[in-house]
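Students often ask why inverse folding is considered easier than folding. One informal answer: many sequences map to the same fold, so there is more than one right answer. In these notes we will look at a single instance of the problem. The structure comes first.
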């Protein structure tokens, strides 16, 4: 599925926002991804301007460092992905935290909209 990456990143964003414990081992296990993919996903979230995290070794958690800033230096395709990620993350902040079905339904409708060429 082409949008599985963005859906995973949105889920990761929401998981981090609405849970207290989110260290790398937990995130890797929960999302069934490897350490490298987790690093890339967190970089995309940071570069999209959604959230900036820092790893705190003492608590074994990622903590919000400050205000994330959109990466304007990204290549055009990556910049397009980052903009889409930003918009979708901001929209999903409105959803109930335990209602990922609503997110998946939204993602499906968005795909249909894009495929129809609107």
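Output (designed amino acids):
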């Amino acid at each position: 599925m082409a949008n599985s990456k963005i859906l995973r990143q949105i889920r990761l964003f929401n998981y981090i926002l609405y849970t207290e414990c989110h260290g790398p081992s937990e995130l890797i296990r929960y999302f069934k991804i490897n350490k490298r993919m987790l690093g890339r996903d967190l970089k995309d979230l940071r570069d999209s301007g959604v959230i900036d995290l820092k790893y705190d070794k003492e608590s074994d958690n990622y903590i919000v460092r400050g205000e994330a800033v959109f990466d304007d230096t990204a290549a055009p395709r990556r910049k397009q992905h980052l903009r889409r990620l930003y918009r979708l993350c901001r929209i999903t902040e409105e959803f109930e935290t335990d209602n990922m079905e609503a997110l998946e339904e939204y993602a499906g409708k968005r795909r249909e909209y894009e495929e129809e060429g609107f």
